[in-house]
Structure formats: C-alpha cells, structure tokens
Amino acid sequence: MIGAVLSSLRQVLKPQDEFNRRIKQRHKTFWAPENAEDIRNTPTNAGDPMEKWQDGLLWQRKLSNKFNARQFAQAMGCKVADLYWKGRDPAAIDFDYLPEQFVIRPTIGHSSGNVFVMDKGLNHFSGTTYTADQIRSALAQAMLASPNVEFLIEEFLQETAERYKILNDYKFFCFNGEIASCQLINRLGPKAGLGSFYDEHWRPMEAVHPGYTLTSPQPRPNCLEEMVAHVKTLSKAYQIFCRIDFYATTKGAVFGEFTPTPGMGAGYSKFGQRLLLSYWDKYCTGLV
User: Fold this and answer.
1) Less CB within 10 Å around the terminal CB: N or C of the chain?
2) Could you read off the pLDDT of 12-49 as tens digits, one per residue?
3) How far apart are CA 261 and CA 173, in angstroms?
4) Domain final residue, candidates 94, 125, 155
5) pTM score > 0.70 for this model?
C-alpha cells in the first residue's frame, strides 16, 4: 500500500523535477572526472572511423568541443561553415586575409559567450564595433579565464543572399534518432529573440522551454527535410539525449553544435518536461 502511494506521488512530482534532476546528474557524470577536459579537448578528425569516436565511456564529451563537433558532423555527411582559422594565439590571426564578414566562436563554452558575429567591423551580437587589435585583446582575455579554449574563425552564413544578419536557430531536442521538438529562435542577440516550437513535420507545438518571447508560427524552412534527416542521423550516432542545433542557409541545412545539458534542465514548461521525459524513457531508457 505504501509502495503504491509513493509510486503515485513520484508520478505526480515527476514532470516538475525529474528532467532537471537528470540533466544535473548528467552534467556531474560528464564533467566530474579528472580526465573529462582532456577527453573534451583532444582534437579529432572527420576521417576517423566511428569506432575511434566511440572508443570510451561517455565518449559524447568529445562533441562538447565545437571543433570536434564540426568534425563529427562532417563525418556524418553534414554541411558545416567554412573554417578560416583555428588556434590559441590571437596574435597570429591575420585579419587582412579574412573576408569582411566572419564569425569567431570558442571551442568550449555556452550561452554564446565570446562569440563575435562580425560584419565590416561591427559585431552583430553586441552592436559594438571592433578593430583587429581589440578583437585580439578580447580573445586573449578570454583565454586567461579558460586556458583550454581555442577559437574558430568561420564563414558568416547567410539565410538569403541579400544581407548579413544573425541567423535563426533551429534547436532539435533528440533521443537516439527521435525528434521530440524543434525550437525556432528568431534571434535578435545572444540572449534575445522570439521563440516557437514544432514537431519534425513543422506542426506547431506548445512551448517546451519558454525562455524567449513566444511568437506566432513561422514559415517552415526550405531545407526542413534535409535538416531533419541530418538531425536524426546525428542523434542516432550520439545515442543519448541531446539538443542538436542547425541553421537554414543559402547552402542548405548547416550544422551548428551539440548541447548535452541545455539550460542545465531549468526553465522548461510542464508540457516540455513531460514531453522530454516521455521520449527519454521510451528511446533512451536507463541512459545517462
């Protein structure tokens, strides 16, 4: 009798706290070991066989490094932004050989920190103009705070050929090849934008994570089928729950990054928690 009562109580409480608990537990499991950063920041190669990618427990930590994530996505047949430069020495960046538009992002980090979306000296993320020396100085400061970080300088992708702007984000919540929801963020800045949610067929859904101002349903991207196919392939290879980000561009669907602990499990709606837990329990049973 007591066991049945406790079971019922857990089911009542589950949507409110269980998803958050699982994400926090994953974060601890991923990053508490002493060798976790070494695993994340060991460079990989797109030509490596899958056996080498998946050669250890919690191998997915490798893909929390954005350079490794690029390599993995390419190995899975996905498009990525062109890479102009990668390294740890900002003084070595020759801005004269870069196009007028480019994006700088760190290999590790979250919440768009230390990202420069540059267009003729203007960082669209901050609305601030930078000289080459000011960018070098900002990157050097960031490296003092995070000695393992490298920086990538990549192509400024475009949604249309007419102008450069911050790209919209397509964030897919995935479970071993299954898509629970896609969040479209019409991004206005690193932490500002409008949000809406869809299933894989672009049918509107309730908000899973109402962290951005909710907006009316948006048109489906032209490359939706390509995007969904790549997301499912990546998710099946990743095996466990992950949010996988893509962009809809003039090149078609372009991979963004993997996020294994989105929002650290906080801020999800009751609907979102129930949805994500139901997929986790069905398609990733017993997995971290």
Assistant:
1) N
2) 555 558 999 999 999 999 999 999 999 999 888 999 99
3) 11
4) 155
5) yes
Q: How far apart are CA 16 and CA 84, in angstroms?
A: 44
**Any domain includes 61:** no
Q: Are residues 168 and 277 in the same domain?
A: yes
The arrangement of strands across the sheet holding 242-249 comes to: 213-214, 193-198, 178-187, 169-175, 242-249, 252-259
